[in-house]
Structure formats: C-alpha cells, structure tokens
Amino acid sequence: MSISQILHDKFMEGLIVDPDGNVLFNQIDIIHQTVHQGYMHTLSHTKLNVADNGFLRVRFVAPADKDIHIRISWASEGKSRLKTYIGTTYTANGTPIVPFNRKTGLASNLQGTYFIDPTINVLGTLRGNDFLGAGGGVSARVGGTGSSDIETIISAGTELLVEIQNVRGSASDLNLIANLYEREKF
Fold it and tell me: CA 20 to 30 Å from 62, out of 13, 93, 95, 161?
C-alpha cells in the first residue's frame, strides 16, 4: 500500500506513517476508528423462552462487492451451542433486521442483508461449533448464565448462518449481538 493510499484509506485514519509508508504510531485501533467514522453497526436480538433444543438463527448476507467483518457475542441463561454454517439453503428468509449505526445521528449505511429465524431447507456445511456452559449443575439451573464471542469475515457475495441452540434442559432466553462493518473486498 502506498503512502497516498494509507493517508486516504477511510479505515486507516489515526495512523502516523513515515515517508516509506511504515506505520509508526496508531492513535486508536481500527475497530474503534470505524465507530468514530460511522461505519460500525450493531445487530442485536433476544429470543425469549426458547424451548430446550430450540434455536435462535440469524442469516448474514454479504453484498457482492464488500466483506463483512463481524464479531458475534451470544448469551444464554444456561448451556447453549453456537454453530455457524455456509452453503445453507432457505425456503423463507425470515424477519429482516436492520443493524443500527453505532454513531448516533447516522442511519445504517450497510449494503448487506440480515434476517432473524429464516426457514431452513438444508443447513449446509458446519463451519464452527462452540459450546457455552453456565455456572451450576442440573439442580442449580436457575440463575446460571454465560456468554462468549467469535470473530470472522464473511466474504463478499457469501452468506453465513449463525445458530444458537438452547441445550439447557428447559426453556431459556437467548441473545445474539453482532458488531460489524462492511469493507471493500480484502
């Protein structure tokens, strides 16, 4: 990347570079910078009283010319699994959800599309399989909570299905928060 490109790249603001283009100092990290610039968005959804072995699913569809950089956090009242899939096929998109811009006063400027609880035809290829335990044993289910997060890039023109499954043994509230921004293909 040339000095000119570094100085004009909207994701590189806050960098001090030498004449050869070497980064000497980064005033703030890139994620923090995207919030300042109005590029960072949050998608948040809570599903209440999800039956044992029930799901909260979110479909992320990247635009054809941009990658989505995403950090997904999830929480549950008890044990849960977070799985991610690629190549999923759907019979219905689900409920559209528009992530909000983290910089107040700015509207969402995302080109990707996002859906809650789409209807699945074929799950596709399992990509990730994470387990979240909550404090307490079987006799102490009430009051145990847990949370975790993952970070990934959804490449331009591709999709990712994120699925949280309640495996608590009884109904549980599930929550997903996705902090994300779009950027021209890496």
Answer: 13
Smallest CA-to-CA distance from 178 within 156, 153, 158 is with: 153
What would the two tokens of residue 71 be?
């950090």
Measured from the Cβ of residue 72, the count of other Cβ atoms closer than 10 Å reads 24
Task: Let me know if 166 is exposed, middle or buried by CB neighbors in 10 A (0-12, 13-18, 19+).
Answer: buried
CATH of 41-184 among 2.40.128, 2.60.120, 2.120.10, 2.60.40 = 2.60.120
Alpha helices in 27-172 (DSSP H): 30-37
Domain range list for the chain: 1-37, 41-184
